[in-house]
Design a protein that fits this description.
Blueprint (H helix, E strand, L loop, with lengths): L12 H14 L3 E4 L13 H18 L4 E4 L19 E7 L4 E9 L9 E6 L5 E3 L7 H14 L5 H7 L5 H13 L3 E6 L5 E4 L10 E3 L24 E2 L2 E2 L29
Parallel strand pairs: 1-2
Antiparallel strand pairs: 3-4, 4-5, 5-6, 7-8, 7-9, 10-11
Helix pairs in contact: 1-2, 3-5
């Protein structure tokens, strides 16, 4: 492993020949070079500049006359992404972030040749010999995740979805959203949004690019927005009529229960009209 070799992949061909010779001599399989600003990458990092630089790296690999993986170290920008147009140039892109003493987050932002690892995140813990182990965590099942989402909303009714995400870490974002949408469709939680006239309406979905206000369905502060239910789970209060059609709300069910209750269309509010 060679770390921080100045100019090894830069404009000076003698440096590239020297590093290639060292790789052959040591039968090296992985070379770590960085930061790239010390390797001759002195430009802003446009797509063409990145391609020109990686072409020089490929020259080093060709001169080694052996299979070798090259890892380039580069900093992130203010948005937390890699600075410059590097994502399109390499085969794999890792985002490494310290998580306090003894812990590191490793996110596989891109894995061109592995759909299994693409977009996967690992939590790493330090070992005694300057290494890392993958922290083993039990995968949450959907029922447990649903309970955690409901508990987070019940703890602070009216909170937005981003705050619920922060309160339920450790799972894929898309999976968390799918469980949330199931809770909304079953009538266990509700999103309070705005109708066409600015009035509050109860939504059975979270509109894209709009702030959500999530409540447990039994929260008394929103009971006036929901239809009433009889002991047998039948709707007894008049449903709201929209454009001449009557729209019903499915009775709330315990988490994990399947079966009765009409499904709620994701394009409708709890009374059938999109906000």
């Amino acid at each position: 492993m060679y770390n921080g070799v100045r100019g090894a992949a830069g404009a000076d061909p003698s440096w590239r020949e020297a590093i290639a010779a060292k790789i052959r001599e040591g039968e090296v399989e992985v070379v770590i070079l960085g930061p790239v600003t010390r390797l001759g990458m002195n430009e802003a990092g446009t797509l063409q500049e990145v391609r020109d630089f990686t072409a020089l790296v490929d020259q080093v690999r060709a001169q080694t006359e052996r299979g070798v993986a090259v890892v380039l170290i580069h900093h992130e920008n203010k948005g937390g992404k890699v600075s410059g147009a590097w994502e399109g140039a390499g085969d794999t892109l890792f985002h490494v972030q310290a998580q306090g003493h003894g812990s590191v987050r490793l996110h596989v932002q891109k894995a061109r040749w592995s759909s299994t690892w693409h977009k996967k995140t690992l939590q790493l813990v330090w070992t005694d010999v300057e290494g890392f182990n993958v922290e083993q965590k039990e995968e949450l099942d959907d029922e447990t995740l649903a309970e955690q989402i409901v508990a987070a909303i019940r703890h602070d009714p009216g909170k937005g979805w981003s705050r619920v995400e922060e309160a339920t870490p450790g799972v894929n974002r898309q999976r968390r959203m799918a469980v949330r949408d199931g809770l909304l469709a079953r009538g266990q939680i509700v999103n309070i949004g705005k109708g066409e006239s600015g009035e509050e309406v109860a939504l059975a979905y979270c509109p894209e690019r709009k702030a959500a206000r999530l409540f447990p369905v039994d929260d008394p502060t929103i009971s006036h927005l929901l239809p009433a239910w009889g002991a047998d789970g039948e709707q007894i209060a008049p449903a709201r009529t929209v454009r001449g059609q009557v729209h019903l709300l499915p009775a709330p069910r315990p988490i994990g229960e399947q079966g009765v209750g009409a499904p709620v269309s994701p394009s409708s509010d709890l009374f059938g009209e999109q906000a």
